Amino acid sequence: MNEKKFIVEYKNQLYDITKFLSKHPGGVNTLIGYNRRNIEEKFLNVEHSPAAEYLLKDYRVKSDNQNFISDESLEVSQRYEVYHINWNAALLPQINQLGDKYSEWVNKPIDRKLRLFKNPLLETLSKTPWYLPLIFWTPIIVFLITNEFIRSPTATSFMFFLNLFSGVVLWTLVEYILHRFLFHMTVQNYPNLVKIHFMLHGLHHKVPFDEQRLVFPPVPAAILSILLYQPIVLLNHFCGGNFYNSRLILAGGLIGYLCYDMIHFYIHHGSPTNKYFYHLKRYHYNHHFVNHDKGFGISSPLWDGIFGTKLFLKKLKYLLKW
User: Fold this and answer.
1) Residue 60 gets which letter from DSSP?
2) Which positions in this protein are listed as binding Zn(2+) (predicted)?
3) Which partner for 212 in 127, 144, 221, 272 could form a disulfide, CB atoms 3.0-4.6 Å apart?
């Protein structure tokens, strides 16, 4: 028997959760001592969400002898997909067939890789490693800041950094608005929008552990930044002068966006011990697996508090470890 495998029993079914241990929203330390044991009482006492029980099905295994958990008798079971989605094919062409069940389906997470496009080139371009936004946006930010420093040598350091900081703060508001009103809008009644929604954000809720589907691809991010920059430029006509610089605000906004992307990746795949990031990870996981209609702030819960969508996490007697 291979003791490295972590097998648990729940409702007379066996589950191999070995690869899930470090991803468990409740931490790996809460599972210590449950290898080769029944977790039903523990699972129910902690009040897991329906999404958690749905996710557990992804690890179900078959055994010829349920009374004796032997690695030789375990076989990964084929998941029964009640929504009739073929996970061996590209998902995007299948999304519209979900109809009014799209929202229900997309908020039931699974732990597997997702193929979006049938075309190999498009599929490759749809994946984004965590470091790509850094490579793409850092030179642009440096150029914007350096160029403004050269163009306005008489500008005070205070006003220079105030514009940058204003851009960072503005991004946190944009992040909240986009996440709440665009990424979580109701789209199942609009077939033409369902595919767009799935590409923008739905896929992240469906496969939250896929590291290639987490940070925002540079091309759509660039298009979005150009659109969002237009009202900032428009304000320049009304607030122009030494105290307002639209390009520095843009640079600050891009810095805020990069911080958001890196924080988002870290709280999904890191094991934070810092108090702030530890709270953000618990906060964001609650949004993913329990309360989809709250907790829209990712880099900061500031605007959730202001607009009444703040999550209040249960106080724990121990620290979670991932």
Assistant:
1) E
2) 179, 184, 201, 204-205, 264, 268, 284, 287-288
3) 127
Query: Would you state the pLDDT for residue 125?
Result: 92
Question: How far, in Å, CA of 100 to CA of 152, rounded?
Answer: 54
Contact 201, 251 (CB under 8 A): no
The one-letter amino acid code at 213 reads: R
- Taking alpha carbons only, the member of 286, 254, 274 closest to residue 319 is 274
Binding residues for Zn(2+) are 179, 184, 201, 204-205, 264, 268, 284, 287-288
* Distance (Å, whole) CA 298 – CA 260: 7
What is the set of domains in the chain, with CATH numbers?
Answer: 7-63 (3.10.120.10), 120-307 (no CATH)
pTM: 0.89
253, two tokens: 């906004």
